[in-house]
Amino acid sequence: MFALRSTEMAERLETQVSTSAITEKRRDSLMGSYLSRTCCIVGGGPAGMMLGYLLARAGIEVQILEKHADFLHDFRGDTVHPSTLELMHELGVLEDLLTLPHQRVTKVRARIGGDEIVLNDMAYLRTHCKFLVLMPQWHFLNFLATQGCRFPTFHLQMQTEAKTLIEENGQVAGIRAVAADGPVEIRADLVVSADGRSSVLRERAGLVVDEMNADIDLLWMRLSKHLDDPDFWIHAQRGKPLVTLDRGEYWQCGLVIPKGSAPEMQVKGAEGLRASIVERAPFLSDRISEVRDWNDAKLLKVKVDRLRRWYRPGLICIGDAAHAMSPVGGVGINLAVQDAVAAANILARPLREGALRTSHLAKIQRRREFAAKHTQRVQGVILRHLTADRRAPWPIRLLEATTLLRRLRTRFVCIGVRPEHVETPDAFKVRSLGRRSQVVAAERKEKLRV
Fold it and tell me: Which CATH fold topology does 216-300 show?
């Protein structure tokens, strides 16, 4: 497998040290067996971290629990779309975010059969950033944690796994978890399940999940990049797509395979895997030996589902816990962030005033459910076109010669359905300066040393 470059290894180490520094200051917060917060968020992914950041910024005591020791996980969603960048601008932290290692993409092109297509052209967007960003998710999550840490109401605990819900009088009143130093009970006015597509809390809550047909899985691997390589995100031959994401020094390749076919492919050995990659993208033939064996490929079992009801009294699910998305378009991280912003806009005031009602939770689902459903449907349509063993019909090819389809796709992928905007207040009047922060309140000055 194409080895990690020294720059990326250094970035990973820096991120791991930074995450430890963020949480070290508050390690004593879970030393006891009991804790009380206004809101407890389970899951330190994009939805959980963004919601925690916004609620803490609004002056609400928030506890975020993440079961892993850090955010360093390969091949998670790494595309940060203009809709998310626009939210960072509204929060005044966009410039800080863009100082982190990333690649900017202004145009997404594909080679499908013999046709070269511009899938997205962000020059048409009415946003501050007319590009999307490829950024390792560990950098993005660590950035949100760093921003949240500016507020005294933000509490992040790593290596803490939620196990069960605490229920009293038919309402969720908290969670029981296991931290690195033992069990802990956290009471909260609201528990937020942001623990992903394999959510423990939604299962414990007995919420009903409707599973959609997911006809594909994805094999991720890395191959080195050469200067004269073609600049396409998708290579599709005879209905067999290969995704190639430009990560600067290497291609992050995603081989689309039929659902459940990975074991059968493994029987054929690494040679069959290499042949499948070269069949879709012949230009990779001179370096395909970098895929040495099946250990160099990581299987993503694609899962598409959504909850019929996202909430119970005292509990709300957001992000993948409410609606697991297909990887088509790389919209998952951005949809999760949009969920978090909508939830914060609706929840901040009732949580601050101690007036939370189940109707507020229902309002979140009403606000975000259409976006999730519509996105899943359109993802399915796009996938069927990519995996069809035929050219697009002539009317589609004719429209491709114009900018109409390009503009529609760009709007759908880069902005999304029903984009959200930050409406929660900044209770601490914090401003960010060049990856460091200044806090008005005197008692926060010590946190700047973290």
Answer: Alpha-Beta Plaits (3.30.70)
